[in-house]
Amino acid sequence: VFDGGFTLEAAEAVLELDALWAVDAVQALVDKSLVRRVGPSRFGLLVSVQEYAAEKLDASGRRAAAEARHGQYFAQFGLEPALDALDSHGGLARRSALTLEIDNLAAASLRAVARRDVETALHTALAAWAVLVTRGPYHFGVTVLEIAREIMPPRSAARAALLNALGDAVQLAGDSPAATACLEEARDLCRSLGDRRGEAHAINLLSVVSWQRGRPDEAIVLGEEALALCREIDAPFIESRVLGNLGAAAFLQGRLEEARARNEAAIAIDRALGNRRAEGSSFGNLGIVLSLQGRFDEARAQFEAALVLHRALGSRREESIALSNLGQLLRQQGDLEGALTNCLEAVLVNRQIGNRRVEGVALGELGAVHVAAGRRVEALECLSQAEAVLRSVHDHHQLCLVLATRAICEAPVEPVRAMAHLAEAEAGAALLGDLPDSELRQRIAEAREALGAD
Fold it and tell me: Is residue 287 within 8 Å of residue 251, measured between CB atoms?
């Protein structure tokens, strides 16, 4: 019943033995070459052996019971304390171990859905998403969560938890409207059930989606609501994420000192919790603030620290963001080859994990590198792709950045088209409420200068 191998601990939970200890049973099978070692503490079966064993299991009439024990074992990794432990002190080892179980987690959730086992389906799906959120592919996570949703009872805590994860997954996969629908249902359901932690989580994710859809005032109100709720119920894991998101909103609008303070507060919480992944994200956000302030060497140190940390953690999503940020900084410093390398890698990582929004961001930055290098054809190809992606995922802020960059690129040869792109970028910036120090306003100023506009 295992999919993708197993540990001795898992075997002890799943095997049904009378005369042998699990370790002795496994060792006996290893000695007979029916089970093989696939790692220091991991075992597996050859496909032919597994097919033969499956036939024997089916013939015994004990498959259902074995699958139920398998599901119960893996469901423990999707309970709230276990999920929090992935981002606590020692979380790197726990996350690495859980990553090896992604096939078991997905299989356990699908089997639980088939037998209408709500709790097992929920917790194995949540554990699977805890792995996939950092590594992708996101479409796989969406599929597992959507299938599990089918058996979640209406107006239940299980459905609310599932919807929060699904809203996060579809947002990362690029479907902001679907994410909004999931998260609004999750928020309302948590509120009616008195689940304050789940409510805070949903509100924070809604804030992120609102910002990306070009609704900054709504995003900030939601973020502040989530922050107050986290402090009321003492939910530091969520509070850290809320502070990071509010900090990102602040630097996108040009409120740089506020952004710095938010991210420093998030880092303090992350260090107390041992949440290295979130700490790395805050390093990146601080780097953006320093870059906008013209403190490029300090910004580079932050981006490089974030990149090293995310690679050590195996956080591919955050790694791609660090690569894109570092690429942008290298472009600003005139290192166009270094910028090109980082931006290309960021695009590839995001395509592998299925993060459409950040793929669009990385494509836009890659286009900006080509503009700086005078490669207009390559620049317009990248910027056109970026525009299409960002429109499809409803990220208005990054779309406006790309439009302003297109205006810079087109200004010498197609000034009429460039003016149209600039006008759309300026209209978007006005709706987003950006201040003069924001990155978008600076890019618009460059486009106006390229066009000789007053």
Answer: no
Question: The tokens of 235 are what?
Answer: 């939910």
- For range 279-294, the mean pLDDT: 90
For residue 360, give the nearest of 331, 326, 397, 334 by alpha carbon: 397
Inform me whether the pLDDT recorded for 227 exceeds 90: yes
Q: What is the mean pLDDT of residues 128-146?
A: 96
Q: Please, is 221 exposed, middle or buried when counting C-beta atoms within 10 Å of its C-beta (0-12, 13-18, 19+)?
A: middle
- Residue 234 confidence (pLDDT) above 90: yes
More confident of the two residues 438 and 21: 21
- Label residue 416 exposed, middle or buried (CB < 10 Å: 0-12, 13-18, 19+): exposed
3-state SS assignment for residue 218: helix
| Integer Cα distance of 342 and 325 in angstroms | 9
Checking if the pLDDT of 214 tops 80, the result is: no
CA neighbor of 329 nearest in space, from 299, 289, 360, 359: 299
| pLDDT at residue 14 is higher than 90 | yes
Give the model's pLDDT for residue 193: 97
Is residue 454's pLDDT more than 80? no
Rounded Cα–Cα distance for residues 390 and 364 (Å): 9
* Nearest CA-CA partner of 292 in 442, 176, 178: 442
Q: Are 358 and 320 in contact (CB under 8 A)?
A: yes
Closest CA to 316 of 188, 133, 194, 173: 133
User: Cα–Cα distance between 110 and 115 in angstroms, integer?
Assistant: 9
Residue at token pair 């938010």: 262
For residue 51, the surrounding DSSP H or E stretch is helix 47-60
- On the question of pLDDT at 292 being above 90, the answer is no
Burial 143-161 (b: 16+ CB within 10 A, else e): ebbebbbebbeeeebbbbb
**Which residue bears the tokens 């306003």?**
441
Rounded-to-integer distance, Cα 297 and Cα 287, Å: 10
Q: What mean pLDDT, rounded, does the chain reach? A: 94
Beta bridge pairs of residue 39: 42
Q: What is the pLDDT of residues 360-399, one digit of tens each?
A: 999 999 999 999 999 999 999 999 999 999 999 989 889 9
Alpha helices in 254-333 (DSSP H): 256-273, 276-292, 296-313, 316-332
Terminal C-alpha separation, the chain? 70
CA 177/CA 375 separation, integer angstroms? 36
